[in-house]
Amino acid sequence: MNFEFGRVALVVLFALLPIVGIALGFFVPALRARGPLFVAFFAGIIPILSLYIPRQFLSGETGMRPRLDQWLIIVYGFALLLGIVNVIQNGSRKIARREKGWPYSAVLMTGLFLTGGLGIWGAVSGQGITTLPDGSGTPFKWIADHFFLPLQATIFALLAFFMASAAFRAFRARNTEATILLAAGIVVMAGRVPLLEFLSSPFPPLQPTAAVASQGLGKLTEWIMSTPNGAAQSGIIIGAALGAASMAIRVILGIERGYLGLGGGE
Amino acid sequence: MARFFDKLLNLDRRWLFLLVFLGVAVPIILPIGLPVTTTGPTRSAFEYIEALKPGDYVIISFDYGPSSAPENDPMAEGIMRQCFLKKIRVVVIVLYQLGGLQLASNSVAKVSAEFPNLKYGVDYVNLGYKDGAAAVMKRMGDDIAGAFPTDVRGTPLSQIPIMKGLRSLRQVSVVVTVATGLIGEYWITQAHQQSGVPVIVGPTAVGAPKYYAYLNAGQLVGMLGGMKGAAEYEKLLAARYPELGRFYKTTRAFTATKGMDAQTVIHFVIILFILIGNIAFMSRRAAQKKA
Amino acid sequence: MPDIGTWVAALLTLFAFSFLYKDNPLFRFTESLFAGVSLGYYVGTTLNQTLVPNLIKPLTHDFNQNWDLLVPGLLGLLLYMRYVPKTGWVARYALGIYVAYYIGLDFTRRIHGEVLPQLGRAIVPLSHLDGHTIFYSLIFAIGVFSVLIYFFFSKEQDQFTRRIARVGIWFLMVSFGAAFGFTVMGRVALLIGRLNFLILDWIYPLIGIR
């Protein structure tokens, strides 16, 4: 068995410590909050320290951080599916009690179990979920290509209509700031597409002028995107990043505990 | 006049929906063929890949789903075609969970069919999808096989010839992330910063404004913004490679260039909506002030 | 003639578009189906692409080399303990490790990937004021710092900083306007894709147009 330092250290920190914490937690309720925060500290500090301390035990081939990266890819997969349990619980309750809208819950559950079932079959049979060795698609792929892809695309495509409706009904130049916003929006919308060429297409004598004007508009659009927009986005990125970094420190140090369902006093 | 503007402002929105529908449908049925002009960020991306040599490694990361496929598919496929023509080795990965895998598989199948002389596993490979984007990139910085032990079909990387010369991101010439949402930013702010790999991003139009900040800071070597960026890339490809020029002119499949006609008409419609809405609003306000 | 897959995709697309006329059972059916299929898709993809190749296969094919992967597997399962009423607190260990790790990665990403490079771009030499410096570097620097001053909420702003914050608001308005323009582009592109499919891949073959 491979007993590299990194693996052993991770097993001690993230298996043995939690086991001890859980066992003690059954007898000492205060540890039910403090134990997880203690273990979480190590999970948060290892990726940070490994960047600043380039030592073998931390970030080397046999170190802790590379193996922890591989572990958390796996845990992320489990976490992604967490909400599905909740959906199944709610949907089953709705159907069993014949609550309002229960047929739609039945449709949801059918879609979930059919697609998920085909995915599980793909894993168990070794077929996978993309193509079979002969080049044909698996049943999961058929469902994905003809149900999932078109449905997701169409649900989002509806937004185009609502945005157009909002542009007509809600976007008003009520004050200086709103006027600047609308003006920038109109310039960018006109500059990103060959609008002037389109408008001049029924009038051939105007086309050369339209082409030159379109180039100018395009250059203005690029300047707006790179300079004022770039500056504002840069400011937003810096501000948000500093806020997120300070939140990260608070979470790792256990000051911020809301994500564990804990209040300030626990 | 005031009554006319009142009626206009209270128009049933389903008439607006119909105008939008016609604005998109008519150019699809009757293509106009409007010209596409290229911009600096797209040209930078194109020239960066043009400067690569046969045998160099490019990772194309499909970090988008069906909700942005009309914009992002042409970008990913255009770059794949360019790499295949230049005999650059392409490694496809997927980090977006909602549909990225299907889109990547479909695009790889579609483009590789245009290059029957290229062999899967030798010239290109699809490593499939992996959860935990940030952790995956971190791991790939040291050891790609640590994050992707197999390809999309479950074949171990040790049995795939193209992966024999590629251990980590540091040996990759450029990562092209075709992205919607945060994963594109992770490539720039994490993978590029920590392993030094150059990044080209192909964001959706919704995400593109933010990437200008990264472009300005030199964290990107190029960017294709939305469907316009994809159309620009197709134009650059057609100009450099006559066979692709013929392909883009004759293919029945959807291309970004074809989509630009409808895009132009709709932009005109929406600008009109904004102008008419504001004229009506200001007229009503002036009439109210008078009263 | 379009195949059955195209018919399914086309009909579902039309059912979804029917919402534009008014809310109706066909749209609700499509919406529920979309939610269910999406969740099932998550299950299939995560299982086949992450859990099998990264966890199950390494454990079953080479346990000696990969024995430690039992820990993330168990941690993953521990997450689901939150659904067990009396022992739900046990899941906090797995949740804490998961959240803290990704937030630790995020910390380094934010500082090294966002704050430092962006500040580096904004702080550029302004000693030589030619056209390029004014239109690019000077305006850029003014924009970044005025926006940062606008977002500074730790202390009440005085008259001077309020004026600078106003300039920051103008830069933000230009940015939001540009973002709106790009958002229009993005959303319309989706609609173009769907109508392209309906017209060219479904209706045209149906009526015999190539």
Describe the structure.
The complex is a heterotrimer of chains A (266), B (291) and C (210). Chain A has 266 residues and is mostly helical. Chain A has 10 helices and no strands. The longest helix of chain A has 46 residues, at 207-252. Chain A is extended. The two termini of chain A are 41 Å apart. Chain B has 2 domains: 2-30 and 259-290; 40-254, 3-Layer(aba) Sandwich (Rossmann fold), CATH 3.40.50. In chain B, 55% of the residues lie in helices and 11% in strands. Chain B has 12 helices and 6 strands. Chain B has helices spanning 2-9, 13-29, 40-50, 69-85, 100-113, 133-140, 144-147, 182-195, 208-216, 226-240, 242-250, 256-290; strands at residues 57-63, 89-94, 124-129, 174-179, 199-203, 222-223. In chain B, strands 3-2-1-4-5-6 form a 6-stranded parallel β-sheet, with helices on both faces. In chain B, helix 1 (2-9) packs across helix 12, helix 2 (13-29) packs antiparallel against helix 12 (256-290) and helix 4 (69-85) runs parallel beside helix 10. The longest helix of chain B is centred in the C-terminal third of the chain and has 35 residues, at 256-290. The radius of gyration of chain B is 22 Å and the shape is elongated. The mean pLDDT of chain B is 93. With 210 residues, chain C is mainly α. Chain C has a domain at 128-210. Chain C has 7 helices and no strands. Chain C is extended and about 65 Å long. Chain C starts with a helix and ends with a helix. Chains A and C meet through helix 1, helix 2, helix 4, helix 5 and helix 6 of A and helix 1, helix 2, helix 3, helix 4 and helix 5 of C.
